[in-house]
Specification:
By secondary structure, the protein is mainly α. The protein has 3 domains: 2-113; 114-146, no CATH class; 155-204, no CATH class. It contains 11 helices and 2 strands; from the N terminus they run H-H-H-H-H-H-H-H-H-H-H-E-E. A hairpin with a 2-residue loop joins strand 1 (180-191) and strand 2 (194-204). Helix 1 packs across helix 3 (45-57) and helix 5 (73-82) runs parallel beside helix 7 (103-111). The N and C termini lie far apart (52 Å).
């Protein structure tokens, strides 16, 4: 479907260049296509304009059939509307495909400028880990983190943030049900004669309860 939409958009661009097609021609084309293919969705004038914009943004068909094909048309419409820079759009294409983001989650990440935050935290990974591992570790961290979903007051303390985060994590782990065991927050671990306290701790097991 993505390739078909790209071909329609490409055709519109070519005919506009050759014959001077305008917006009214797109309206007539949409009407003709709906009559020819009455069972096919997505042939409105508005969607045809998106197809034209999509083909203009990505002129290489190999690219359309490769990386871009990993996410839905509605993801692409949103990206064309909200993100003007090509490099930034391609970043969100890759992240959406890799993380399986819904359209709404992708919009949230765009609005919170995820492309600027990812891998931006200050760490010592480059000096303490070999190159492949340090790069991977760095990309896991963001700066700043967006915790709007916690609904905290502006003057919250670190303890308030910890409690709110662990409450959400606790509810999530308990919701997973059988096969997951919630151990607790601030769980004490002793490693090499040193004491550590994990903010939360859980295990995954296929063992039957006894």
């Amino acid at each position: 479907m993505l390739y078909l939409y790209w071909r329609i958009g490409k055709t519109i661009l070519e005919q506009q260049d050759k014959a001077g097609w305008g917006a009214k021609v797109i309206d007539r084309l949409a009407d003709d296509l709906r009559k020819e293919f009455p069972d096919m969705q997505g042939l409105s004038p508005r969607n045809l304009k998106y197809m034209r914009q999509f083909a203009a943004a990505y002129p290489a068909v190999e690219f359309v059939q490769g990386p871009l094909a990993q996410i839905s048309w509605y993801h692409h419409i949103t990206l064309l509307t909200k993100v003007k820079e090509e490099a930034e759009r391609l970043f969100y294409v890759a992240e959406t495909a890799r993380n399986g983001w819904s359209r709404d989650v992708m919009v949230l990440q765009i609005d919170s400028k995820y492309h600027q935050r990812k891998g931006a935290a200050q760490t010592n990974f480059p000096t303490t880990l070999p190159a492949p591992q340090s790069d991977l570790a760095q990309q896991m961290l963001k700066d700043p983190y967006i915790f709007d979903f916690l609904s905290l007051r502006d003057d919250y303390q670190e303890k308030d943030l910890e409690n709110a985060l662990t409450e959400h994590i606790t509810k999530f782990l308990l919701e997973l049900g059988a096969g997951f065991a919630y151990v607790g927050k601030q769980y004490h671990l002793e490693v090499g004669e040193e004491d550590f306290f994990w903010t939360y701790c859980f295990t995954i097991s296929n063992c039957a309860a006894t």
